[in-house]
Amino acid sequence: MIWVDGGSFTMGSEDDIADDREKPAHTVTVDGFYMGRTEFTQDIFEELMGWNNSYFSCATCPVNNLSWLNIQLLVDRLNEATGKRFRLPTEAEWEYAARGGNRSKGFLFSGSNSIDEVAWYAGNAGNRSHPVAQKAPNELGLYDMTGNLWEFCLDNMSSNLYARHHQLKGDQPRVNPVHIVEASDPRRMVIKVQRGGGYEFEAEESQVYRRDGASNNVRMPDIGFRLVMERSGNE
Predict the structure, then answer these.
(1) Residue 228 burial by CB count (10 A; 0-12/13-18/19+): exposed, middle or buried?
(2) Could you give phi then psi for residue 137, rounded to 5 degrees?
(3) 28-59 pLDDT, tens per residue?
(4) Pairwise pLDDT comparison (10 vs 168), residue with the higher score
(5) Where are the beta strands (DSSP E) in 51-182?
(6) Is 233 helix (H, G, I), strand (E, B) or coil?
(7) pTM assigned to the model
(8) How confident is the model at residue 228 (pLDDT cuts 50, 70, 90)?
(9) Predicted local distance difference test score (pLDDT) of residue 186
(10) I want to staple 43 with a disulfide (CB 3.0 to 4.6 A). Which of 59, 67, 147, 200 is the partner?
(11) Could you report the per-residue pLDDT of 200-219, keeping only the tens digit for each?
(12) Which pLDDT score, from 0 to 100, does residue 235 have?
């Protein structure tokens, strides 16, 4: 895990090619957190869970073909085994870290303006995922925040979330935002945010502000995750 100092940043984009769900750009503030240096790998997942149904099987490739709900079972087991507090990142934490946190140099992709330097994407991946940490890291030392696999976040997906905040709050910053609508039935299907782009997406679909969604029960070869760890009270 890599410690990410808290701070404020501009989330979203005003680029002409940005989708409506990525607009307007707005200020967000997050507290510090630990984030996984890489996407969660198959070897660690299999050691904890005793199974691995990933496509593109290899120990140091990111685990995939598991649902958002499956990830919650992994998190529960990991927390019980370690006594720590792991979870999926909020969407705001994810974008802040992908942009380089308070060390950001404003790159278009996570760590570079040249996607080939930092990502496995449609132009170089051969339509499959690859072992983690083979490309250059971003400003914080995080790998594959662009490309390789899409990464699930904690939040429910809302295509008009940014616009709704702007209408209600104007330029007032969002502070540690997380968008979760509790369902009466925890098994109910909801759409969860996924970030980062994947191995089959083009460069113009992979900028650091891009956001998409997938249902909490879907399992796909191009969706994985990385975890954050909350800071304990005595740190």
Answers:
(1) buried
(2) -80, 170
(3) 999 999 999 999 999 999 999 999 999 999 99
(4) 10
(5) 86-87, 150-156, 174-175
(6) coil
(7) 0.96
(8) very high
(9) 61
(10) 59
(11) 999 999 999 999 999 999 99
(12) 54
Q: What is the dihedral of CA 147, 152, 157, 159, to 10 degrees?
A: 0
* Location of structure tokens 């997050």: 30
In the chain, where do the E strands start and end? 2-4, 7-11, 26-30, 33-35, 86-87, 150-156, 174-175, 191-195, 211-215, 223-224, 228-229
Residue type, 35: M
Residue with tokens 């191009």: 222
Average pLDDT along the chain: 95
What is residue 90's three-state secondary structure?
coil
Could you tell me if 136 and 118 are in contact, meaning their C-beta atoms sit under 8 angstroms apart?
yes
Q: How far is CA 165 from CA 27, 135, 161, 225, in A?
A: 11, 36, 6, 27
- Nearest to 186, CA basis, from 216, 214, 228, 158: 216
Is residue 37 within 8 A of residue 2, CB to CB? The reply is: yes
Query: What token pair was written down for 19?
Result: 């989708």
C-beta of residue 112 within 8 angstroms of C-beta of residue 17? no
Strands 2-4 and 86-87: unpaired
pLDDT recorded at residue 185? 64
Q: In the chain, what are the domains?
A: 2-229 (3.90.1580.10)
Q: Comparing C-alpha atoms, which of 166, 169, 128, 168 is closest to residue 147? A: 128
